[in-house]
Amino acid sequence: MPDAPPGPLWLLAELTYACPLQCPYCSNPLDFARTRGELTTEQWIGTLREARQLGAAQLGFSGGEPLVRRDLEELVAEARSLGYYTNLITSAIGMDAARVRRLKDAGLDHIQISFQASDAALNDYLAGTDAFAHKVEMARAVKAEGYPMVFNAVLHRQNIDRTEEILALALDLGADYVELANTQFYGWAFHNRHRLLPTREQLRRSEAVANRYREAHGDRMKILYVIPDYYADRPKPCMNGWGQVFLSVAPDGTALPCQAARMLPGIEFPKVTEHRLAWIWNESPAFNRYRGRDWMKEPCRSCPERDKDFGGCRCQAWLVTGDPAGADPVCGLSPHRGLIDRVVEAVNGGGAGAVNAGGASAAAGAGTAGDIPAMLFRNARNSKALHS
Ligand code: SF4
Ligand code: SF4
């Protein structure tokens, strides 16, 4: 068994899978509606304490929508007393000005608000509900309370042409950081990838806008731009390596090296209700499964990049190739890169007409265009239907 790293630096507390929105790129598992139960307040507090003892210093409250939990303020206060730097990752639905103040009083350090687009029509189509006006109001409330604010927008084929308007909105709202994160294709996004992957030309234009904004406004607003890895030829160092710095705890207490990993086959992920976190991190078979190099196959096993990118993402390898121990298929050295290229080509050439049809201008759940399935929105009904 490889040596476990000293301890996680990051803890992501996915407090609930409940969410009033239904983003079609949501990273929650497709079968989220089948998971039963949520940790109690006491169980979360115990988890925060154990993770802090292990060395975790950064804590993200996420979901689903973490504001659904009425005990959020209590958990924030506990996190503060334990010495975490805390971040709330939210859609802002479930927030009002009084709650923004209460969270501040409880010691919350940082808020990240996600926007689906820069205007109400597209934002609310993608969110599946009227959310835009409230998000704008809450972003202003967050700034009025003096929080550092991250404005997050997941970019994809349906909204990437509005990069300029999205950045203008972020600037107007006084965002300190903007995260323009092109969709990564797991969970619901993988299911919808033919409709969400932008074209090469869209991506080029969008990056140029982001660079222009950086030059003009970089002193007021830091911009992080994440490209879709389907357009890269080397994979990202996913999570900085399996079980190296990141620990995620799902609403039902399942401990994961990344929030997408519970889809992987043949791994029994331990629960914080059944094991101590120290055992989970240091000794559990799940957290040791892809540590070190012994699990690697060729071409990663003998590749000079293997200690930099760790062979890429296990979830992407599993989703695209069916082999979770293979090289991430976005890698140009992977024998399966052709599976990614086929999607890229469909979006940029042959399948583009079909891919263009429908989308934001079509009603949610409208039929299919060509052989491209209709956009599937993340909600309990679709989750149950997929796994009935
Ligand atoms: S991505 Fe959208 S649907 Fe998924 S948890 Fe976040 S706000 Fe909810
Ligand atoms: S072959 Fe493996 S280790 Fe080498 S660059 Fe590709 S994914 Fe990374």
Describe this structure in words.
This protein has 388 residues and is an alpha/beta fold. It is 36% helix and 12% strand. The chain has 16 helices and nine strands. It has helices at 41-54, 72-82, 97-106, 120-127, 132-144, 163-172, 187-191, 193-196, 200-217, 277-282, 285-288, 306-309, 314-321, 337-348, 352-356, 380-386, and strands spanning 10-14, 58-62, 85-90, 110-115, 149-155, 177-182, 222-226, 246-249, 255-256. A nine-stranded mixed beta sheet has the order 7-6-5-4-3-2-1-8-9. Strand 8 (246-249) and strand 9 (255-256) form a beta hairpin. Helix 1 packs parallel to helix 2 (72-82), helix 2 (72-82) packs parallel to helix 3 (97-106) and helix 6 (163-172) runs parallel beside helix 9. The longest helix has 18 residues, at 200-217. Mean pLDDT is 93; it is low at 351-369. It binds iron/sulfur cluster (2 copies). One iron/sulfur cluster binds next to loops.
Write the layout of secondary structure elements.
Blueprint: E1 10-14, H1 41-54, E2 58-62, H2 72-82, E3 85-90, H3 97-106, E4 110-115, H4 120-127, H5 132-144, E5 149-155, H6 163-172, E6 177-182, H7 187-191, H8 193-196, H9 200-217, E7 222-226, E8 246-249, E9 255-256, H10 277-282, H11 285-288, H12 306-309, H13 314-321, H14 337-348, H15 352-356, H16 380-386
Parallel strand pairs: 1-2, 1-8, 2-3, 3-4, 4-5, 5-6, 6-7
Antiparallel strand pairs: 8-9
Helix pairs in contact: 1-2, 2-3, 6-9
